[in-house]
Amino acid sequence: MIPRDLITGFLLLLETFIGLMGNLLLLILYMYIFLIQPRMKKPVDMIFTHLMLVNVLSIVFRLIPDVMASFAVRLPFHDVACKAVLYAYSVTRGLSICTTSLLSLFQAMTIRSNHSKWAWLKSKLESYIFPSLLFIWIINTFIYFPMVQNIKGQINFTVVASRYSQIYCQSSQVRYHSTMSIVTSLMIRDILFVLLMMWSSLYLVSVLFRHNRRTRHVHSFSVSLHASSEKKATHSILLLVGFFIFFYCSNTFVTFYLFYRPKNSPLLDMITRVLSSAYPIICPYVLMNNRKIISKFIFSLSNSECIFSTRGCYG
């Protein structure tokens, strides 16, 4: 094992630990609210919970194989295992795009429904969440089926500075029209959901701009308190979208460059690994910055202590 691979392995291991710690923490907090304190949950919490679960799966199926490869772990993948891992990572990557887009769109519709003309939409938004999540699962489950048929495991394992799909797995010869159909489907999905993400984000930015101008002349405490809560949530979602678009575009550019580059570049390959896993790692810490979920969890814990305490909170 060369020092470069060792350093890469430790960096990827650190990324894995940081990403799993943040996402699992928020996932546990959201599940606690859903199961123990359901009256405190909000409709958007279901989307946040789904995003944390997708992030955990994405880190597990992307970073852990890269860590094993960097430390020269000889783990020959047979066809079934190789297809399963690559398929799982591809699906979770697609779910990450769709869930972030859905989150941004849902926040835009929530703010829009605060207007009297769109008040009817507010009561129906929650009922649309589960069908929407089911829909994106169906899309991403079926769109990658043709791709995994062309993947097979490599029995002879050698440590090279390359991506996981080239270390443990290899692609068989595929027909031109089959490759183009897969690429076209993925491009249509990505463009559609990224455009929805950008449109809803631009709408949220415009709402925040109008809100800042209007609140200069409003001094009602209750109105400003509710607006402040919505404003913090909107800021967090906009920050998430900004990070996602940056890492997505950067990773796409570097990936295409590597694809058409005649020689392999270990540095660019390392950059690709970092970019492809950066969003799931940063995501929970962006949400924690809002501090609303943490304060909600602490408040629910204090309520539970009051309920189960023999003396009570005021005894």
Helix content: over 70%
The assembly state of the depicted protein chains is single chain
Going by helix content, strand content and strand pairing, the class is: mainly alpha
Report, as a whole number of angstroms, the end-to-end distance. Answer: 64 Å
What is the count of β-strands?
2
Strand portion, in percent? under 5%
Task: Quickly count the helices.
Answer: 10
Largest beta sheet, briefly?
A: 2 strands, antiparallel
Q: What's the SSE pattern?
A: HHHHHEHEHHHH
Poorly predicted runs: 155-166, 220-226
Mean pLDDT: 76
Rounded radius of gyration (Å): 22 Å
Global morphology: globular
Describe the structure.
The chain has helices at 3-35, 43-70, 79-112, 119-143, 145-148, 164-167, 176-214, 221-260, 266-290, 292-308; strands spanning 151-153, 169-171. By secondary structure, the chain is mostly helical. The chain is globular. The protein starts with a helix and ends in a 7-residue tail after the last helix.
Short description:
The protein has 10 helices and 2 strands. By secondary structure, the chain is an all-alpha fold.
Keywords:
315 residues; mainly alpha; two-stranded antiparallel ribbon; 79% helix; 2% strand
How are the SSEs ordered, and which strands pair?
Blueprint: H1 3-35, H2 43-70, H3 79-112, H4 119-143, H5 145-148, E1 151-153, H6 164-167, E2 169-171, H7 176-214, H8 221-260, H9 266-290, H10 292-308
Antiparallel strand pairs: 1-2
Helix pairs in contact: 1-2, 1-9, 1-10, 2-3, 2-4, 2-9, 3-4, 3-7, 3-8, 7-8, 8-9
